[in-house]
Amino acid sequence: MNTSTFKGGIHLPGYKEGTEGLPIVPASIPDKVYLPIAQHIGAPCLPLVEVGDEVKKGQKIAAGKGFVTAPIHASVSGRVVAIEKKQHPGGNFVNCIVIENNGQEEWADTVKPHLQPGDLSAEEIRNIIFEAGIVGLGGAAFPAHVKYAPVEGKKADCIILNGVECEPYITADHRLMVEKAERIVAGLRYILKGTNCEQGIIAIEENKPDAIALLKKVVAADKHIRVQALQVKYPQGSEKHLIYACTQREVPVGGLPLDVGVIVNNVGTAVAIADAVEFGIPLIERVVTLSGNGIKNPANYLVRIGTLFSHLIAESGGYTGEIEKIIAGGLMMGKAVYTANIPVIKGSSGIVILKKTESKKEREYNCVRCGKCIEACPLFLEPTTLVKLAKRGLWEETAQNNVLSCIECGSCVYVCPAQIPLVQYIRRAKQAINVAKAKARAKAKSEGGKE
Ligand code: SF4
Ligand code: SF4
Asked: Distance between CA 417 and CA 370 in Å, rounded?
């Protein structure tokens, strides 16, 4: 097989055998859903409903101002019983619209099929994607319509659908590719039309031969779309590495995929787009892998957005014993959360539960200068240097050493024999730099305003 990859990175155990053969099953629909008003990159939405309102499935219940936003829709029909703060998978507390499910599954009048989807213009397709609240389902949750909007002086000529799924335990995209190959390709064709792009690539790691074979078959007669098999390496799914592996184009430091003519989307996003463009269905459900050695019955669930992690955990028979961690997202780039009382959001690809005995001990030792973190870093950074600077609060110096380029992939932490939580220090440095930048911008704005 002709496979590609990138320089650097690490080889991880996949731990996918628990779920990769399990078909996607619909999770039971809970009595209440909790829909955070912040589920995308950009300013949070504002509620369009009040406590006591009756809502229907697919009804728009929150929307934002500006361009970088994505509306939120009711994932069940019922009554709004609260708008209250609840812990978000990202770690902070966010206002959630709480809907008590009436079990009627009544669709909103706005949800209706587009009878001639093939006749839609690029602009109409982008508008449908915006109205459907579609964001990147790989985890980044960037509003899809923003990626597709024309940008003066820049032109995308290639769409890459990311079916890599290099995070251990997570198999949601793999199952989607095996079970919904046709819908993925349909979605990709709408993205190509919506962006006026000629070339589509579906990128898949070679540890998913069934998905590769099936998608190759589906696109065999389409000269605009090809399937690219990639070597199994972490973090193959990160945008910059994926673009390089598929096209040999290098996104410049601080640049965007569009700078090299590429737009990257997750395969799940393509399915959501096909459903929105053809059936008028907004983003109200997604596939979530629930796995790890701490859960009794791992599964791939089709889940209504706003379902609590605890609901899915109960559906899977509960924990296997005392647990060490609940991770929202993948083992490497996900976030450990302290409760299962957290809702699934648009960007939730997986939940990993680890039991006490098998997770890594947290004790940090002194750096032994082995250089393994430098070898592993796919961005060619020097994590050990960044951490030394961060420990001393030398934020400017960390910036000079490109700390902002770090994608927080965790490869350096994985190989570090001293168990130094390098990413935690790096995150602290990035936050400090971003806060300083925001303060400088605010100061410049207020000084500018006085003149
Ligand atoms: S420094 Fe950042 S990008 Fe490099 S390996 Fe560590 S987490 Fe990944
Ligand atoms: S891998 Fe860990 S111990 Fe080795 S140089 Fe990097 S920080 Fe130091």
From this structure: 8
For residue 135, the cross-strand partners are 143
From CA 281, how far away is CA 40, in angstroms rounded?
Answer: 18
Nearest CA to ligand 2 atom 7: 384
Contacts of 109 (CB under 8 A, 6+ apart): 56
Distance 254 CA to ligand 2 centre (A): 26
Q: What is the pTM of this model?
A: 0.92
Pick from 416, 419, 422, 426 the residue to mutate for probing ligand 2's pocket: most ligand atoms within 8 Å of its CB: 416
pLDDT tier for residue 361 given thresholds of 50, 70 and 90: low
> Can you identify the CATH homologous superfamily of domain 1-26+113-359?
NADH-ubiquinone oxidoreductase 51kDa subunit (3.40.50.11540)
Rg, the chain, Cα only: 22
Specify the pLDDT at position 359.
46
DSSP state of 235: T
Residue nearest atom 2 of ligand 1, based on CA coordinates:
406
Instruction: Compute how many other C-beta atoms are within 10 angstroms of the C-beta atom of residue 5.
Output: 17
Identify the CA nearest to 312 among candidates 284, 338, 335, 288: 288
411 lines ligand 1 (CB under 6 A): yes
> Residue 417 has which token pair?
């024999």
Q: Is 373 in the pocket of ligand 2 (CB under 6 A)?
A: yes
- pLDDT tens digits for range 195-250: 999 999 999 999 999 999 999 999 999 999 999 999 999 999 999 999 999 999 99
Judge if the beta carbon of residue 391 lies within 6 A of ligand 2.
no
Nearest CA to ligand 2 atom 4: 370
What digits encode the pLDDT tens for the residues 75-115?
A: 999 999 999 999 999 888 999 999 999 999 999 999 999 98
| Rounded Cα distance, 159 and 189, in Å | 10
Q: Which residue's CA lies nearest to atom 7 of ligand 1?
A: 408
d(CA 141, CA 66): 17
C-alpha distance from residue 376 to each of 145, 309, 398 (Å):
34, 33, 19
Cis-peptide into 252, omega within 30 deg: no
Condensed to tens digits (0 to 9), the pLDDT of residues 279-321 reads: 999 999 999 999 999 999 999 999 999 999 999 999 999 999 9
Q: Which amino acid is at 319?
A: Y
